[in-house]
Amino acid sequence: MALRILHLDSGREWRGQQRQVLLLARGLRERGYEPLIVGMPESPLVQRSRARGVAVSAVRTRGGWDLRAVQRLRALLRTWRPDLVHAHDGRSHALALLALVGRRRVPLVVTRRVVTPPRNFLARHGRRAQFIAISRAVQGGLVAARIPPDRISVVYSGVPEPQVARPRDWRAEVRWPAESVLCGVVGSVAEREQGTEMLSEIARRLPPEARAATRLLILGGRGGGACEIGGVEAFRAGFVDEMHAAIAGLDLVWHPAPAEGLGTALLDAMALRVPPIAFAVGGVPELIEDGRSGVLVAPGDVDAFARVASSLIASPSAREALGAGGPARAREFGVQRMVAGTEAVYQKALAPVAR
User: What is the rounded (10 degree) CA torsion for 196, 202, 208, 211?
Assistant: First the structure.
């Protein structure tokens, strides 16, 4: 009989976390599991999962102590009878712990994606959970919160091998010069105030010739069209559905994140031979081999970031050489590896129940 896994995610938007939940559910289904994704009504995760034939249930959550949501989850536990619950964020962890009160035979697995130690009381002191850390840096944050190391497993996020028939022609769409060098900022980096400030500071520190040649493209978050960032012409494209084609149309990816659990957008870029420049924070050094598949810069050093960016903007051959090392490195973080690692954690969590 197929093991039933209930995946709980409280996200309202489509981000790297939600993408990983769907990739995991589909991979588990291919291995004979029966997944059910529980998410916010009208969330992209619920809609996309349903469109791809993955079973879903919509439960609105307003916080980790939302008792109405807990009641809905408890009813779902009674009717669907999962063998294991997998919570994919801190709010889901708290809700799952409350919903599982009195159900000691249902194991709980929690994925942690940020490097900061968990602050929520239930997240820190819920003794029944097995934790998945998406990088060694995230594992360190869990250990700092005094979670026993034997309850933490590192399972890196996985990205599919890209299949791009035609890269997106951003120069034609935005009416930028054919000779301009496109530097993309992918995901939530530019949405955060600190990330936006760093992006502006990097752009300001480019030498005049590099600033004139560069165009910044913001992929993700809210759109806004043409703008200027640190004296560089830019375009806020907002949410982009076909992200692989969008990234394939870039020359460089900038990732000036002040903190990062892992950074799957960097893996996507490397897989597409688009070299990334990133601060060496969190789990990023576990992905990028400095000088081989991208460039790492000391955390917060915007001057060094600008120098590296300027050098690569001026040299197409250097970009090509750096991009060539990306695909092999990205393949080391495939989806099947992520699914197999998660399955091993499930078996570890289920072992005490089987005894």
Answer: -50
Q: Does residue 324 share a domain with residue 340?
A: no
Q: Clarify whether residues 178 and 141 are in a common domain.
A: no
For 141-161, the pLDDT digits (tens) are: 999 998 999 999 999 999 999
Residues 181 and 150 occupy one common structural domain = no
Domain assignment present for 313: yes
**Where residue 118 falls among pLDDT bands split at 50, 70, 90?**
confident
Model confidence, pTM: 0.93
Beta-sheet pairing, 181-186 with 252-255: parallel
Helices 193-205 and 302-314 meet at what angle, rounded to 10?
Answer: 60
pLDDT of the residue at 228: 94
Task: Write out the H or E segment, with its range, that includes residue 250.
Answer: none
pLDDT, position 344: 98
For residues 263 and 146, state if they share a domain.
no
CB atoms within 10 A of CB 19: 18
Domain CATH for 199: 3.40.50.2000
Contact 135, 101 (CB under 8 A): no
CA angle at 338 for the pair 332 and 339, rounded to the nearest 5°: 135
Strand partners, 288: none
In whole angstroms, what is the distance from residue 106 CA to residue 314 CA? 57
CA dist 37 and 253 (Å) reads 32
In order of 23, 82, 345, the CA distances from 27 in angstroms are 6, 18, 15
Domain with 250, as residue range(s), is 170-331
Does 219 map to a domain? yes
Q: How many domains does the chain have?
A: 2
Residue 232 CA to residue 306 CA, distance in Å, equals: 13
Alpha-carbon distance of 178 to 269, in angstroms, equals 21
| 11 and 150 together in one domain | yes
